[in-house]
Amino acid sequence: MEFPDLGKHCSEKTCKQLDFLPVKCDMCKQDFCKDHFIYAAHKCPCAFQKDVQVPVCPLCNIPIPIKKGQVPDVVVGDHMDQDCGYHPGKKKEKIFTYRCSKEGCKKKEMLQMVCAQCHGNFCIQHRHPLDHSCRHRSRPTIKAGCSSVTASPKLLGDFHTLAPGRLAQRLRYWLTRLVL
User: Fold this and answer.
1) Which pLDDT does position 24 carry in this prediction?
2) Domain, as residue range, for 64
3) Residues 7, 46: one domain?
4) What is the pLDDT, as a whole number, of residue 141?
5) Would residue 15 count as lying in a domain?
6) Position 150 pLDDT exceeds 50
7) Looking at the structure, do residues 42 and 62 belong to the same domain, yes or no?
8) 75: alpha, beta or left? (left if phi > 0; alpha if psi -120 to 50)
9) Number of domains observed in the structure of the chain
10) Predicted confidence (pLDDT) at residue 31 exceeds the cutoff of 90
11) Exposed, middle or buried: residue 42 (CB in 10 Å: 0-12, 13-18, 19+)?
12) Which residues pair with residue 9 across a beta bridge?
């Protein structure tokens, strides 16, 4: 051999390959070949000191802060034993909590839809004042819903009995255009 001092053997026990461009691990200070210089490849015992990761609790999905030099598995285990807010017997929160105030309707919605006139909570189907027989100022605006008025032209006469107002005029105008 012409250059006997050139290169170093890989420090991995199973490899021992002669490498002319070895890489020195910055934690354990040993020389490794291109295949074993990564912490995980040579199972570096000091890697947890340099490898900065924030472990997440597998039960409550909360990141667990660790100090330098601590083993993440031990810290997460301590959290699970003492501070974890996950309780397997506890019921999950209900998503659909807002029940429709219309008589006979049992639908529940995720979002609250409050009528501006009667302040009742309604589902998507009954959210408009005409669809839930809204009683604003203690009298109903109309007996039939909006959807039944557009379907049946004979109910259009009931709309002309509404109190005069800008909204009622606009509604009458659009209903006559839809029916005709």
Assistant:
1) 92
2) 52-89
3) yes
4) 44
5) yes
6) no
7) no
8) alpha
9) 3
10) yes
11) buried
12) 18
